[in-house]
Amino acid sequence: xxxxxxxxxxxxxxxxxxxxxxxxxxxxxxxxxxxxxxxxxxxxxxxxxxxxxxxxxxxxxxxxxxxxxxxxxxxxxxxxxxxxxxxxxxxxxxxxxxxxxxxxxxxxxxxxxxxxxxxxxxxxxxxxxxxxxxxxxxxxxxxxxxxxxxxxxxxxxxxxxxxxxxxxxxxxxxxxxxxxxxxxxxxxxxxxxxxxxxxxxxxxxxxxxxxxxxxxxxxxxxxxxxxxxxxxxxxxxxxxxxxxxxxxxxxxxxxxxxxxxxxxxxxxxxxxxxxxxxxxxxxxxxxxxxxxxxxxxxxxxxxxxxxxxxxxxxxxxxxxxxx
Length: 323
Known about the structure:
Elements: H1 7-24, H2 32-44, E1 48-51, H3 58-68, E2 69-70, E3 73-77, H4 84-88, E4 89-94, E5 99-104, E6 111-115, H5 122-125, H6 129-134, E7 136-139, E8 142-145, E9 151-156, H7 169-172, E10 177-179, H8 186-194, E11 209-210, H9 211-221, H10 228-243, E12 247-249, H11 253-269, H12 277-288, E13 293-294, H13 301-318
Parallel strand pairs: 1-9, 1-10, 2-11, 3-6, 6-9
Antiparallel strand pairs: 4-5, 7-8, 12-13
Helix pairs in contact: 1-2, 1-9, 2-11, 10-11, 10-12, 11-12, 12-13
């Protein structure tokens, strides 16, 4: 396989993404920018965290994506009494076989919707660490691959709400991006109010791409060209977060790789076989902000997020753009 994409390959990748976008827009009104960010996550093969107020369409967004792909799908409702084995699976003794047999949990799917993930205890949240990082689950010393493609699409309400457990930094670092829905525009909300179907499980979408399409898309994404100057631009932004006094710690190496993969997917979404600095600028916030924390905590979680985002924008603006 060539190290560079051909015109037909770029066209094929763009066609897959366009089909997904058009299908999701049938149910998600007025959130085209959020849909595009989700498609970047799909192409990059990353996990997504949707964080926002209750009732703004986080679960509907995830469900629309899952219904648009002809892949295995499962939904896990995270609650305070959910156990790690309820997520990953458990070994059960089979009397007829006289041995323990592993019963797969709901995490064994191509698209896993982890709904309200921060309502589960830290122990249950940590059951996703290995599978999000390595695509496998280890139970009783035995590893079980979950298959490919594999994507965790988690939703959560802001952490300052009652009955929630903030995700640890190690878990946050495994999400490619953290996205926000926001309230719809009045005209879009009016269309939602007029619709007779207001529950996400009433969504009537047919799959428009196959599992093989997604695997091909993700493979092509890794071949998008990044010029050395743009790659150095990515590194300078990541490095600047590590010397910024406002942050408790900078972006990890995993975070730098995540930004690289995201900008490659962003270029592919735009129908290009190469990355431009504008791709880096547009992806820096969604990819890096959730990996950063203030040295001095803000008055509340939402205020701290705004301060982190503002500091990150200042860093991106200060780093010279390659010509």
